[in-house]
Amino acid sequence: MTGASASRNVAALSKHHRHNKAGHDLVYTYENPEKRIEKFIELTPKGKRVINSLEDLVTLSLVPKATSVADNEEPSTKTEELR
Questions:
Q1: Mean pLDDT of 16-27
Q2: Which among 31, 43, 44, 82 is least buried, having the fewest CB atoms inside 10 angstroms?
Q3: Nearest to 48 by CA among 21, 25, 76
Q4: All structural domains of the chain with their residue ranges
Q5: Strands 39-43, 27-31: parallel, antiparallel or unpaired by DSSP?
């Protein structure tokens, strides 16, 4: 990814996008005080909420789904009822 592409994408995720358009307000940037050409990027509170929501969704999708067959019931009995 080029530096220009990275800057555009970071701008879209920050509060103000290019051409004075509103961004997503997920990150904010600030200069490295020791080396002003470098920029740091951190999540905003909104960005942290989005990440937490995504993590929850991924976790839920990895949890095995509960089956409709009761623990004490034979699977074949339930299958026959569905037919």
A1: 89
A2: 82
A3: 25
A4: 3-63
A5: antiparallel
pLDDT digits (tens, 9 = 90+) for 42-76: 999 999 999 999 999 999 888 877 655 555 555 55
Residue 16 pairs in a beta bridge with 22
Categorise residue 20: left if φ over 0, alpha if ψ from -120 to 50, beta otherwise.
Answer: left
Task: State the amino acid at position 37 in one-letter form.
Answer: I
The token duo for 46 is: 């909104």
Spell out the residues 6+ positions from residue 75 whose beta carbon is closer than 8 angstroms to its own. 69
Global pTM reads 0.65
